[in-house]
Amino acid sequence: MTKENNLTPDVIIKSFKDKFKTKIIDAQIKKKPAGSEKKEAIDIWMKVDKSVFKNVIKHLCDLQYPHLPVASGNDLGKNIELIYHFTLNFDKRLEEINLNISVELPKSKPEIETICDLIPGALITEREKQEFLGVKIKGIPDDRRVFLPDDFPKDVYPWRRDEKGLEKLYKNLHEVKK
Amino acid sequence: MSQTTKTTYHIPIGPIHPALKEPVYFEFEIDGERIVDVDVKLGHVHRAVEWASRKRNPIQIMYLAERICGICSYCHPAAFTLAVEKAADIQVPERAEYLRVIQAEVERITSHALWAGVAAHEIGFDTVLFLTWEMREKLMDLTEFLCGNRVTKGILTIGGIRRDITSDMVPKVTGVLDYLKDNFERLRKIFLDDKTIKMRAQGAGILTNDNALKLCAVGPTTRASGVKKDVRVGQSYFAYGDLNIDYVTPDTLTGEVNGDVYDRIIQRLLEIKQSIDLIEQCLDKMPKGDITYEPKIAKVLNQLKKAEGEGVGRHEAPRGEVIHYVKLDGNEAPFTWKVRAPTYNNILPWIPMLKGEQIADIPIVAASTDPCMSCTNRVGIVKDGNKYELTKEELHRLSVEKTRRLMR
Amino acid sequence: MKFSMLPSVFTQMFKKPWTNKFPAKYAPDNTTQFLADVGAGKAELIPPIETPPNFRGKIKYDKEKCTGCKLCLKVCPCEAIEFKEKEKKIKIYLSRCCFCSQCNDICPSNCLSMSDEFLLADIDPYSKDLIVE
Amino acid sequence: MAKGLTKAFKKALWVYHCNSGSCNGCDIEIIAALCPRYDVERFGIKLVGSPRHADVLLVTGPVTRQMEDKVKRVFEQMPDPKAVICVGNCGNTGDVFYESYNLVGPINQILPVDVHVVGCPPRPEAIIYAVAKAWTKLETLEG
Asked: For residue D15, what are the domain limits?
């Protein structure tokens, strides 16, 4: 893994922009000061087109091997948005950068390639997306369920907004009042 | 010519556990005493927290977040408030930032003291369990004095903190810190100079630096393998930007890092020392000022109802980095709330750690990553047809027996 | 050295045990009898470890000051507060409450406060003395 | 439990702790009750490793769907004069997790619970007070 030393937010965005040109839909930098000396925490929010997602991650790994804590997803009605949260420069004091790459998948065919070959640590969060949001991850090494019980109905995805299958499972523990 | 076919046995462990651990289900492939393969099945504690948050406003979610994990009950609301404050762009007064750091560090010491007791119990030293938990009782009294409840602190609110540490409360805090400092030496001697713990811990459950990076391990587990990854140092949140804090890895004490259980013990003891020093820095650098940006909760709720945006909150919990993602879209409940507890990322490193270890080492290696849900109790060994179960007592006795054997 | 624990064993021998012997030193033979005596004042209960100031225990509800504004219902994370329509007052189920004291902070006429009584256990979770009227 | 319990039964209650999906705040308080400061061992209460030797089952947590049959199995494996104490509001009424698709209800719908300990988490002394209440209940059954 190459150890790029002076990774600042603008260097990162420029290196992505000139490699993928229009495929990076938009990128913004947010800064939030904290503490009495008002040092800033840096967030980069980047929207990426689905087709070029795999080599964006490959490019990121060559830039600097990132730490991927989690990928979160939300259901925007027409399509499902997956947000991969990376952090760079995590071993330099006060220079850690949160890089959040979000990619939108059509709800009719929510599919995306796996990144387990580049970052093996992504297996659990990808399995979780598969069972909670119904996103098909192509090429995932092991696609069993992580958190839901085995007798959970097959095509019910709890995080989707328009989910009907949950009503019969739903239980309000206060009903037993009297 | 009886050609013995080499078969591996299949051991299911869990999920019910008599001691304090949460239910998780291990499946081990073992060959003789050696573990060949590990498979972990989670989800026994899945209480649908994210799904339940869709009908609640952020103040209610704060208390849902607090009960995700009982031991580190401060880290989830901390990451949640950071995410909401980034999404709704709320500025927190400085005194509240310092108070938040003090609460985070008190919780870290309490959690590490708990872990030290449990790890010693796993190896068979019950007196050390009582000794570390006696130290922990002093910390629980301090938490109760500062927050009103021993375990669920309920002290964080969006945009600040609910209880102040006034000048007449400070002597009690420094009293407990002094008690910790002169007990720290006793703890260090017990854990690090003891011949038996060295035999059991050194060389057991090794997580190489490369594996820790590749599997994105977090917290003391990855720092014990030499990876410099600590949210408090890397990013400036709460008041960590103003304090002088640096990465802590085992080589600061022993000069070399080999990522085994012994290094994780060193790592956590060094972090207790670092937390004590951080609390003292905060106590004398604390600026004056109010402790929340808006005392009236009703007004906070109205402002959050109108806020829009998304934010990522990251906080360094005792077990690793907690990350919350919140998306607010202008109605009462947040649109999305994603929680990621540190143990998610420490599940995969178990596999390289446990491969090649003996059955008797399972408790100590699994407990060394201080998982928020680890378990071993009954090991059911299916051997040539008849299934007999090793109860927790026998598994524990196996582990203690191994210690005795090594002691001779 | 071989017997490194001996000094601390000896110091430990002459120290008073740290246990706080709440209700009684050993289990009474007849607990109902013992509790009856304590009630009658004949026997003496060893108190639990005293709680610090503003400890979050059982909720105290001051019925007169309550104006029925239902703000506490909005902020209670466990739906432990039930609103009685006809008399415009609230009813708190202690077996649902998570003792977070958010209702104390949000109440405009601050009729809710937290006592430091925590010995709450009963046969039925919805029994009379676990509901604060 | 039928009548005719011997007087000595309640003197040495062996306890088995079962975590059915709790956030382990209550579990820590149970272990804290066993530690030297509260020391329930002076009442003869000991944590045992298997339900087969236990008299009292300490259950914590709102029972998740996967744990329901396992909690029932543990309850059935306990020898007969047994009691169940539910520690913490999660088990009594699922305090903060009261609506969810993966929880199967407060524990008194799954097991016959004798004493409910209120608190989130209850202090170790509250657990000792609940054990005292369990004694009074057991005494009514003494022959």
From this structure: 11-138
